[in-house]
Design brief:
The protein contains 11 helices and 18 strands. With 430 residues, it is α+β, with helices and mostly antiparallel strands. Strand 9 and strand 10 form a beta hairpin.
Length: 430
C-alpha cells in the first residue's frame, strides 16, 4: 500500500478504494491548495473525516473533487472516537460525481502466495506472447498484514521471569510481625470481653481459602478471579464502536504488532478485558451476572464484539506492568481481610519489600479501590480507580487504607499463567 504521494498520480477515489480493499487502519491526510483533510479508517471502513472546520461526509465529498495535491497515510495514528460517516465508500464516490471509468482500475493485492505467470509462459508458446502483457513474472504486493504462526503456550511463549517469590516456595503464607493485629481479628472480640456474664466460648475462625488459577473452588463461595480496575496507559484506539470492528482481524493485528497492554470493552452492566504480552493473550476476564475468566471469558468477549454492542479501548502498557497485572488476577492470596484501621500500612509495605514479594496490594473502602504492584518487593507502580495513572508514590493508596471501612489484601506467589490459544478459541462455536 502506497504510504505517500501525489493525487495527480494516485487519485483520491482510487486511494480510498484501495484502503477499503486492503482493510487498512490508520489516518489518510490529504492536502490541496492550503487545505487539509484527515480521513480515518478502521479495517478498511471510512468512519470519520475532519478538515478543521467541518466533519463527516461533506468533507469527504469536497476532498474527492480535488485533482491535485499530496497525501500521506499513517497506520499508527491515534483514531478518534467520533463516527460521522454512515455511507459506503462506493456511495460517496458516486455522490461526488467521480467518473470511475476514467480512473486507473484498482488492483487489490493477490490473496494467493503463488507466483503469477505471464500468458505466454503459461501456455509454453513464447512465439504467441503478447508484448503488451504484464512482465513474465509478477510478484504481488506485500499485504498489509501477515498472520504469524499459531501460538502454542507455554512452549513458544514464556512470560518474563518475575515469579518464584521466596514466600511462595514451600509456604502458603507468612505472618508479618509488623501487623498490629492478626488477620482474623474482629472488633466483636473486644465487645465480648468487656460485656458482663460468663466467659465467652472461643470460636476458631474459619481459615480463608487461598485461590489461584486452576484451583477448584467447589464448596466455597470465593471467587477465583476479580475484575480489578486497570491502570491508564497510551491509547491506540479509544471509544471505538464494536459495530465496525472486525474482531479476529483486530486480534491478528495485535499479535502481528506484538502488542503489550490490554483491550477493554464496556457495555452498560457488562465489561471485559483481554490482557496481552508481546502479542500473546495472557488472560481474559468478563463481568456480567458473574465473573468468568480464560476461554469462557474470551467467548463472552467475542460474542459482545460480534453483536456490535459497546465500545472498546486498546491500551499500551510496559511489559513489567502487564505481567504484574496478570499476577494480580491469578496469584494466590497471601493475606486477606486485613482491616486497614488496625494495620500499620507503611510497615506492611516494608515487610513485603524485605520478603521481596512479587505480587500486589489491593485496598478497598466503599467505592474506592487502590492497587500497588510489586516486583521483588519494590513498588512497580500504584494507582486507584479515581487516579488511574501509574505512579511510584503510594500516597493515594495509603489514603484509602486509612479510611475506617478499608480492607487490605496481599496477593503473591508463583502464578501459572498458561495463556490462551486465540486460534483455537476462535474456532469454538458458541
Amino acid at each position: 500500500m502506497q504510504m505517500q504521494g501525489s493525487l495527480t498520480d494516485s487519485p483520491l477515489p482510487t486511494l480510498i478504494q484501495g484502503m477499503q480493499s486492503e482493510r487498512a487502519t490508520g489516518t489518510l491526510s490529504v492536502e490541496h491548495d492550503n487545505q487539509s483533510t484527515a480521513l480515518y479508517f478502521l479495517f478498511g471502513h471510512l468512519f470519520h473525516a475532519d478538515n478543521g472546520t467541518q466533519q463527516g461526509e461533506p468533507v469527504v465529498l469536497q476532498a474527492l473533487s480535488w485533482k491535485d495535491g499530496d497525501f500521506q497515510f499513517d497506520p499508527r495514528a491515534k483514531l478518534p472516537a467520533d463516527e460521522t460517516i454512515k455511507s459506503s465508500i462506493e456511495d460517496l464516490i458516486a455522490s461526488a460525481g467521480v467518473n470511475t471509468d476514467a480512473l486507473d482500475p484498482f488492483q487489490p493485492p493477490v490473496a494467493s502466495t503463488e507466483t503469477m505467470v505471464a500468458p505466454a509462459e503459461a501456455t509454453g508458446d513464447a512465439n504467441t506472447a503478447d508484448t503488451t502483457a504484464e512482465p513474465e513474472i509478477y510478484s504481488p504486493p506485500t499485504p498489509a498484514y501477515t498472520p504469524p504462526e499459531v501460538y502454542t503456550p507455554p512452549e513458544v511463549y514464556t512470560p518474563p521471569d518475575i515469579y518464584g517469590s521466596p514466600v511462595a516456595e514451600g509456604a502458603d503464607s507468612v505472618s508479618p510481625e509488623s501487623l498490629e493485629e492478626p488477620a482474623g481479628y474482629s472488633p466483636a472480640d473486644l465487645e465480648e470481653e468487656s460485656s458482663p456474664g460468663p466467659a465467652p466460648t472461643t470460636v476458631e475462625p474459619e481459615p480463608s481459602v487461598p485461590v489461584t488459577a486452576g484451583l477448584s473452588t467447589e464448596g466455597t463461595s470465593a471467587e477465583p478471579f476479580e475484575m480489578y480496575p486497570l491502570p491508564a496507559g497510551t491509547f491506540i484506539y479509544e471509544g471505538l464502536k464494536t459495530s465496525f470492528v472486525d474482531f479476529p482481524r483486530l486480534l491478528a493485528t495485535l499479535r502481528n504488532d506484538k502488542h503489550t497492554g490490554y483491550v477493554k470493552i464496556n457495555n452498560d452492566a457488562r465489561s471485559g478485558v483481554l490482557l496481552f504480552h508481546d502479542g500473546h493473550l495472557l488472560e481474559a476476564l468478563f463481568s456480567d451476572s458473574g465473573i468468568t475468566h480464560s476461554e469462557v471469558a474470551f467467548t463472552k468477549f467475542r460474542r459482545e464484539m460480534e453483536n456490535g454492542t459497546g465500545l472498546i479501548d486498546v491500551i499500551t502498557l510496559n511489559g513489567d506492568t502487564v505481567v504484574a497485572l496478570a499476577q494480580l488476577l491469578t496469584a494466590r492470596p497471601l493475606y486477606t481481610g486485613l482491616l486497614g484501621r488496625f494495620v500499620n500500612f507503611e510497615a506492611l509495605l516494608e515487610h513485603l519489600e524485605e520478603e521481596q514479594i512479587d505480587g500486589s496490594v489491593v485496598v478497598r473502602a466503599d467505592d474506592e479501590t487502590g492497587i500497588i504492584l510489586l516486583r521483588k518487593g519494590t513498588v512497580l507502580g500504584a494507582y486507584t480507580n479515581g487516579q488511574p495513572q501509574m505512579a511510584q508514590s503510594t500516597t493515594a493508596v495509603s489514603t484509602i487504607a486509612s479510611l475506617r471501612p478499608a480492607r487490605i489484601e496481599v496477593k503473591s506467589g508463583a502464578s501459572d499463567i498458561q495463556g490462551i490459544d486465540v486460534e483455537a478459541a476462535l474456532k469454538q462455536a458458541y
